[in-house]
Specification:
The protein is built from 5 helices and 6 strands, in the order E-E-E-E-E-H-H-E-H-H-H. The chain has helices spanning 63-73, 81-97, 105-119, 121-131, 137-152; strands at 11-19, 24-31, 37-43, 50-52, 58-60, 102-104. The strands form 2 sheets. It has a 3-stranded antiparallel beta sheet with strand order 1-2-3, with no helix packed on it. The chain has a 3-stranded mixed beta sheet with strand order 5-4-6. Helix 1 (63-73) packs across helix 4 (121-131). It holds the Pfam family ATP-cone.
Length: 153
């Protein structure tokens, strides 16, 4: 860290304290060359996650969209909100751990479908009907048949 007063690159940390509820660290430094003190802050660098929509448009990742979609799919089902939130947390963790800066909605949708299938089959079919944009009853029945086949195996 260069001294803001003399520009020298050597300094020592005199004091460190967590700030912002542990989200950053405040450091008091002393320049070796001029002995003046200055403050720096250290925080985790969060990579912005960009979602590529089916249309090709890009927007910032919003976990609330996944949460709302899952809550809607699980409406009137015996699924606890904490279970839904845990799945959303897991999906978000997977996305950030992938280290990809841009992620297609198709990938996110498949992750949601993979998790929601284990949670509740009716919620899975509801989510799939919106996500896969079923055009007619045959497409819907095809998904049901696939689900029944997996269940019997």
């Amino acid at each position: 860290m260069n001294c803001p007063f003399c520009g020298d690159g050597e300094s020592k940390v005199v004091d460190s304290r967590p700030t912002d509820e542990g989200q950053s660290i405040r450091r008091r430094r002393e320049c070796i060359a001029c002995s003046r003190r200055f403050t720096t802050y250290e925080k985790i660098e969060e990579l912005p996650l960009i979602v590529i929509k089916k249309t090709g448009n890009r927007e910032s990742f919003n976990r609330n969209k996944i949460l709302k979609g899952m809550i809607k799919a699980c409406e009137k089902r015996p699924v606890a909100l904490c279970d839904i939130e845990n799945i959303v947390n897991e999906i978000e963790k997977q996305l950030y751990n992938s280290m990809e800066k841009e992620i297609k909605t198709e990938f996110i949708g498949e992750l949601v479908m993979e998790h929601i299938k284990k949670l509740d089959e009716v919620a899975y079919v509801r989510f799939a009907s919106v996500y896969r944009e079923f055009k007619d009853i045959n497409t819907f029945m095809g998904e049901l048949r696939k689900l029944l086949k997996e269940k019997t195996n």
